[in-house]
Amino acid sequence: MMVDGKNIFEAGFWGWRRLGIPEHEVCQWRDRDSSQGGEGCDPLSKMWGRPHRVARHEGATDTRRPHRTENVDFRGPCAAMPVPGVRGVFRLLPPFAPRGCSYTLGLARFVAGLFRIMSMTDLAGLTGLGWDTIKRIVKGAMTKEAAGVDLKQVKFLAIDEVYLGKLHKFITIVIDWESGQVLYVAKGRGENALRPFFRRLRRAKADIRAVATDLSAAYAAAVRKNLPYALLVADRFHVIKLMNEKIDELRRALQREADIMGRRAIKGTRYLLLRGRENLAPDRLPDLEEALKLNKPLSLAYYLKEELRAMWSFTDVAQMSSFFDDWCRRAAEAGVPLLASMAKTLRGFRSAILNGWVYPISNGKLEGINNKIGAMQRMHYGLRDFEFLSLRILTLHKAKHTFCG
Asked: Mean pLDDT over residues 240-267, rounded?
């Protein structure tokens, strides 16, 4: 085929490839005709107008799979001209491919969409792409998605910590309590980990009304300092969890000190003591009653736990406050050191516990996200890249893995 400027110009972007024109002929045509119209004044420079990379496969007529690339300089005084059949002018990058990537935007959208229901290994096997390429596509999509969160609409927050193992150790997670979306992930715990998030809230001018946390003095101090107008709510789940830990510790201590008959009565009652009475099977209630009858401290701790669970059912905050003070007094005067320690801890979070009547929010959704994070860690056998791990957590509420094939 005769090679001239008209053939290449009418072919459009990379049209000489579709016409089957060998690379060396294109370069010969460029070198021959550039001297006639001035340095660099050839149709190729008019198409792109900027330096670009052209595949050069020397000695071959098929340039669809080049072995290497070299820089070909088409700089010149000519202005870039529109290419027939192609939308816009390609000055530096084509509109269908990201910078420095070997895949198109359409393929990136396809991979990012399937990643919500498939693992990275399955995606690599389906598309024929490398695992690193899949990770790069997914990481870019998750970065854009995480950057589009509007903090101004957030009213209620939930904060908790998660232990991820020896590598990453503790991380702090903040979610929107109403939607369940993860808003922030950072290494560490306490005020230092939350400081960048509080700055983002101030820039967004968010009107935060309440924040649910566990019984952590560090998180409570950070919320009171940076969100003084928001109510701090002590999570009900963590209050009952702490009480169950005290009962379990008391049960183990009594079992060590009891005689043979006492040990037989206490043995096998751990989950009977920790589970709610309404959730027990009818045939297990006699075993529970026998264990409580033989151990007065254990019986006192168990019934105080059941009363504490009913504290959030009051319809008036004044009644709840009076009940709370009476409960702490009876626990402190019970003569059991573990119950006295529990009463002291709850008194330190008195206002936060009573705020649970004003805004009945908890960390229940966040605990579910913690379970998802654990499942994701097991599926990946751990993730060393913390940036990728944090992006996975930020978009975890939209992921739904299914069996494919």
From this structure: 81
> Residue range 73-77: average pLDDT?
39
Reported as a single tens digit per residue, the pLDDT across 20-35 is 545 444 444 444 444 4
HEC per residue, the chain: CCCCHHHHHHHCCCHHHHCCCCHHHHHHHHHHHHCCCCCCCCHHHHHHCCCEEEECCCCCCCCCCCCCEEEECCCCCCCCCCCCCCCCCCCCCCCCCCCCCCCCHHHHHHHHHHCCCCCHHHHHHHHCCCHHHHHHHHHHHHHHHHHCCCHHHCCEEEEEEEECCCCCCEEEEEEECCCCCEEEEEECCCHHHHHHHHHHHHHHCCCCCEEEECCCHHHHHHHHHHCCCCEEEECHHHHHHHHHHHHHHHHHHHHHHCCHHHHHHHCCCHHHHHCCHHHCCHHHHHHHHHHHHHCHHHHHHHHHHHHHHHHHHCCCHHHHHHHHHHHHHHHHCCCCHHHHHHHHHHHHCHHHHHHHHHCCCCCHHHHHHHHHHHHHHHHHCCCCCHHHHHHHHHCHHHCCCCCCC
Provide the percentage of residues in the chain whose pLDDT is more than 90: 23
Q: What does the alpha-carbon distance between residue 271 and residue 280 come to, in Å, rounded to a whole number?
A: 9
Task: Determine if the pTM surpasses 0.70.
Answer: no
- The alpha carbon of 210 is separated from its chain's Cα centroid by a whole number of angstroms, namely 22
Mean pLDDT of the chain: 75
**C-alpha atoms less than 13 angstroms from C-alpha of 66 in its C-beta half-sphere:** 14
Residues 6 or more apart in contact with residue 259 via CB below 8 angstroms: none
Q: Report the distance separating Cα 208 and Cα 219, nearest Å.
A: 16
